[in-house]
Amino acid sequence: MIFIGIDPGLKGGLAVIDGSLIADLRIMPAVKVGNKKQLDERQLVHLFKGWKSGTEITTYIELVGSRPGQGVTSMFNFGLGWGIVRGILSGLSISYELVRPQAWKKVMLAGMPKGSEYQVASRLWPDQSWMATPRCTTAHDGMIDAALIAEYGRRRWSGEK
To answer: Terminus-to-terminus CA distance in the chain, angstroms?
Structure first.
């Protein structure tokens, strides 16, 4: 059984947990179209097919909504990407569960101050690099959140607290 956590959006991430180890961790694949970026549907299909082959999958997608101050265009594009991920999973017959940020953060950040995702993830997986590329100097929030969402799902599925 593998657990996939998805932080949707262009700055999001994908994480696969096998057992208690991170088997795969990556930024959300995107391509440039004109002068804008959008999710790379082909790469997402390829990734999910590869993860699906020969194993049972439980997938968790962060359920997020609009925030004050976000523009209409950015929210539309975010919602479009969120729908693309759900559509690909449905098309590949991969079931998924939508998880509110408040739910996974309540479990994964219990007793920790707000904004401690990196600290928690680094404790859970001390050897994991959270950088999007070797040249990056700061951790990628989307990959961190995806890993914590996957771990939240693993704990929920196994009955752990």
So the answer is: 19
3-state SS, 98-122, equals EECHHHHHHHHCCCCCCCCHHHHHH
Structural domains in the chain, sorted by start:
2-158 (3.30.420.10)
| Listed residue (2, 43, 42) closest to 26, CA to CA | 43
**3-class SS at 28?**
coil
Bridge partners (DSSP) of residue 94 are: none
Rounded to 5 degrees, what are φ and ψ at 39? -60, 145
| Reported pTM | 0.91
CA 17 to chain centroid, in Å, comes to 11
| 5 contacts: CB under 8 Å, gap ≥ 6 | 14, 15, 17, 59, 60, 62, 145, 146, 147, 148, 149, 150, 151, 152, 153
d(CA 97, CA 55): 18
User: What digits encode the pLDDT tens for the residues 51-62?
Assistant: 988 788 999 999
